[in-house]
Amino acid sequence: MAASQLFLKETRDSYPKGRVSIIGAGPGDPELLTMKADRLLREADVILYDDLVSAELVGHYSALKIYTGKRKDCHHFEQDAINEEILRQALQGRKVARLKGGDPFVFGRGGEEIEVLRKHGIRYEIVPGITAAHGASAYSEIPLTMRKVSSSVAFCTGHPVNKIQVPDADTLVYYMVASSVHDVLDAVLKKGRSLRTKVAIVQNATRYNQKIFTGTIQELREREKTVYSPALLIIGENICQFIEENWFSKKKKVLIIGSGENSYDPLDCVTVHLPCSGEDDADRQTFMHCVATIGHYPVVLFSGVLAARHFFSSLFSSGKDVRHLGGSKILTWGNAALSELRRYGVVPDLAIEMEEDALLTKQLRENGITGTTVLLPGSNYPDVSLMRAVEAAGNSCAPLAAYTYGFRENEDEINLDFIDEIYFSSPSCVRNFHTLYREIPGRTTLSCADERTVLECVRIFGRTGPDESGM
Ligand code: SAH
User: Is the CB of 128 under 6 A from ligand 1?
Assistant: First the structure.
């Protein structure tokens, strides 16, 4: 080996093996993540993530996830403990992704985290994120600078209250103001700004539940309004640009229960998903037992995209591939399940197109699938009408929870007050939703993937369209 190569190798080996990426996740909309952040999150062994990072976003990656936020009811990490945990993970040779809301270097304590890494000689890189001020500015259509109106902007913090600063800039953006809006306004007035100065509060910027209040300092001071975190306070004449009906507020906010990403055009709609998860929460032991003994199930029927997706992802993560299903007949019900299976290279023995109970029973009989046990991968809420249709052809059913619906410990419920439409992709989704929420606000439109789902909606909620009763 040449001396220079030897030298290079030795230098490399003298580093501890792990490496850390400090990544900005952006302000909320998962699509505001950078491509680089996405790649590093896909490659990571462990993701340590903060409060402001959406659990849905983190759920897309297969790494071990550690929540380091500070919610009530949850064990919470102090900054020192976070630094220690990052270090501990890296020293074990892992690829660590430290995921932070917005940008790591804007009120993000990213600086403190790299100090520890520098001290211990750990390799790291830093990936910038879209900071909340930029997200709020774009999604509320309030430019931070504007020719002739504002030619400077300052990012400030409203916390701690005794350290509030008022720099001499045309536009001021205050972070961390949920409990200190009035203190910030007092400080700004003291600095000589008039009571007629324009202000805007942007809550949950870039998210489905973004809410904006605009007015003058005077108007805001008269209103004893609670400001919910996360929120930003923007101060300056640039707020004159604000319009009620902006490009983001105009979009229809749709809650998708089950799978239905492709049913809505992102140009007109913002979609949010009722959370569901696979490996972590579904009864993993039962699932793995089922996979191990799959030979006992002569028939496996896939009736939905999510069931198929979670089933195969668990199968693959247990080190097996599709050959493991070789001894079973594979059936699909509905085109969505069929195309999902094709993604794994699986062509079903029987594909039933129409999602209609009677047709399913008929096709099972005609194809000699009777007197046998049918494995039904689905959610933690078995699809009762599907089971009835399978049983009507003389079979017994083995429902399998391949994934679980529900909110994670550290996750906010979806606030239905902001939702214009709910989309149900199957009857079991209607039941899942009902278990979690019990009712739907009257103004919300309902939309269903097929006839069976419409019937379930009518049975449970008494309607499919908007509530006409005036509630
Ligand atoms: N590093 C982050 C800021 C962390 S400090 C960034 O660059 O954005 C936390 C504060 O950020 C919150 O109190 C709030 O003021 C602001 N913030 C973060 N996300 C927000 C959002 N989606 N909408 C409004 N404010 C947000």
Answer: no
